[in-house]
Amino acid sequence: MTQRIVVINPNSNQTVTGTIDRACDRLRLAGGPDIECVTLPEGPRGIETQEHVESVVLPLQRTIRARDNDADAFVIACFSDPGIHLARETTRKPVFGIAESAYLTALTRGERFGVISILATSIPRHLRQIRQLGLLDRFAGDRAIGLGVGAVAEGADTGERMVHVGQQLRDLDGASVLVMGCAGMARFRAAVEAAVGVPVVEPTQAAVTMALGAVRIAGA
Known about the structure:
The chain has 220 residues and is α/β, with parallel strands linked by helices. 44% of the residues lie in helices and 16% in strands.
């Protein structure tokens, strides 16, 4: 039976889900596990506030329960990692949040990491999680590009804004590795890395890579 990793986009924006799905293409290996990207229809168009984060926790739990029998791992593909603790209590399968996975991956690529956020209002949520994970000593800074989730996925100048902020994180904050603070940013990873000249971690790829390892080890 083919193993499966279910990647859940907690917002209802299909464009973002498509971006996430394409980011997973390089991780799709012959013989599996399958990587299935799904959209949470109950979610807001974009998760940009704490209210948005809280609103998707129970719908996420219901989705995980419904898919528990045909999934070997889950990835919550929102940079706020909504409902991660409840999800881990809901299933015995491994559950990965893309922010947590990205931060941990960044620690292996540089001494201090910086975060490229969508909106300034996202930064306090990121700081709370970084503090809770005990990573403040390796944290360089967090700067926003000033675009919401929908505009990030569809905007013409998103890449330019990300490069500008990435350069500030490198030059002003001392970041030696960058973390993209939204799943909708995925298509800009390579371009930002080339322009800024430091490693750039795409969070969904980081989380799915960890899920692949967990699933393959479990099946060994």
